[in-house]
Design goal:
Aspartate Aminotransferase, domain 1, pyridoxal phosphate, transferase activity, transferring alkyl or aryl (other than methyl) groups, PyrdxlP-dep_Trfase, 389 residues, Aspartate Aminotransferase, domain 2, binds pyridoxal-5'-phosphate, globular, 7-stranded mixed beta sheet
């Protein structure tokens, strides 16, 4: 294994007889066999090889190999979206009657999975508050099988101690699943702290240019075998085109994340000095309540900032409407800076009470800091703050 940056660039699909330098796009539903015997042996898994793109495709295999190297995980699958990965990680590894313990601060759709989808099949869950993690053993039930967490959380930027989570999962014999979407493997590698499964929405920083959807489930070989079986027969597979895009994006993840993080820190520091704000939250600001923990387990602070303006929701909306460059859209992790109002968009399906429990006030704004020049990002924000007073 080489360095992170080198593996992300040099782990490539094997060359075809055209001797291409950059991996080509394999737009093919199926792959041919040299003989009836070879077809039989591949289906029987006696010899390796591509059979059908719902199972595997050179583009998805290259993506998986690159992200496994980055995460330090043994194996994985790539899925059509991040939510297919969240769903698959639970559906493949749990059975009727199982119980999930999850951190309360989860992405809105993951919350819907736990509270609306899985209960239909007899899989129930309990939320633990991050501030109260010392008491989480009281939340364990005899049928608890999985610990599902997201750190930093979307959008609250709450940080969970991965070392603690690894030890807690081991002590209670739980499968630890970590949604590593906000940090990316460049900033933190949950498997090193004992996570059995790491999930991603590759749609975000892994793509990095807001082009395609994708997801990943990575982890220990014996668990991934279960996930592969589930995926082969239920079909959440990524398209070869999206896998090709994402495998190319992995080549620039390290340099992009360095810049996302430098820009986000500069913007967060600007906000910290500004009297228009009630608060600004960024993992690498000293004022973040878990700043020391963020420093312990993250290489840099990430590309996301949350803030609340004085003047509540009306001011937040005026501010968003006054931005000239920063995009108003629901994605994050793009080269373009993006502003989102979680209470009315990504987390609107949660009740007001549920949002309050995970720190999403009506005035909360999420800023995904892009790769534009940091002075231009700050200029846009500064102008909009003034105009929205
Ligand atoms: C933390 C987190 N997990 C999962 C997802 C879902 O990913 P996708 O939109 O690719 O399905 C998102 C999307 O915003 C997310 O932020």
């Amino acid at each position: 294994m080489s360095h992170f940056e080198t593996d992300a660039i040099r782990l490539n699909a094997s060359k075809s007889n055209q001797r291409e330098h950059s991996a080509p796009l394999y737009l093919t539903s199926s792959f041919t066999f040299d003989s009836a015997e070879e077809a039989r042996a591949m289906f029987a898994e006696e010899i390796p090889g591509n059979i059908y793109s719902r199972y595997a495709n050179p583009n998805s295999t290259e993506l998986i190999e690159k992200v496994c190297a980055a995460e330090d995980t043994e194996d994985g699958i790539a899925t059509a979206s991040g939510m297919a990965a969240m769903f698959g990680s639970m559906a493949a590894l749990l059975q009727q009657g199982d119980h999930i313990l999850a951190s309360r601060s989860l992405f809105g759709s993951t919350h819907q999975l736990l509270t609306r989808v899985f209960p239909k099949w007899g899989i129930r869950s309990t939320y633990g508050d991050i501030s109260d993690y010392k008491n989480w053993d009281k939340l364990i039930q005899p049928n608890t099988k999985m610990l599902f967490i997201e750190t930093p959380s979307n959008p609250g930027l709450e940080i969970i101690d991965l070392e603690w989570a690894g030890q807690f999962a081991a002590a209670h014999n739980l499968i630890l699943v970590v949604d590593n979407c906000f940090a990316t493997p460049y900033l933190q590698q949950p498997a090193k702290w004992g996570a059995h499964i790491v999930t991603h929405s590759a749609t975000k920083f892994i793509d990095g240019q807001g082009r395609v959807l994708g997801g990943l489930i990575l982890g220990k070989k014996e668990l991934i075998q279960e996930v592969q079986f589930f995926s082969r027969h239920t079909g959440p597979s990524i398209s070869p085109f999206n896998a090709w895009i994402l495998a190319k994006s992995m080549e620039t993840l390290a340099v992009r994340m360095d810049r996302h993080c430098a820009n986000a820190l500069a913007v967060a520091e600007y906000f910290q000095e500004n009297t228009d704000l009630d608060f600004v939250k960024y993992p690498f600001l000293k004022s973040h309540p878990q700043h020391d923990l963020a420093k312990k387990q993250m290489k840099l602070g990430g590309g996301i900032i949350t803030l609340t303006l004085k003047g509540g929701i009306a001011r937040a909306q005026r501010f968003i409407d006054q931005l000239q460059m920063i995009s108003v859209t629901a994605n994050l992790g793009d080269s373009r800076s993006i502003i989102t109002h979680p209470a009315s968009t990504t987390h609107s399906k949660l009740s007001e009470e549920e949002r309050a429990k995970v720190g999403i006030s009506d005035g909360l704004i999420r800023l995904s800091v892009g790769l534009e020049h940091q002075e231009d990002i700050i200029k846009d924000v500064e102008r909009a703050l003034e105009k929205s007073r």
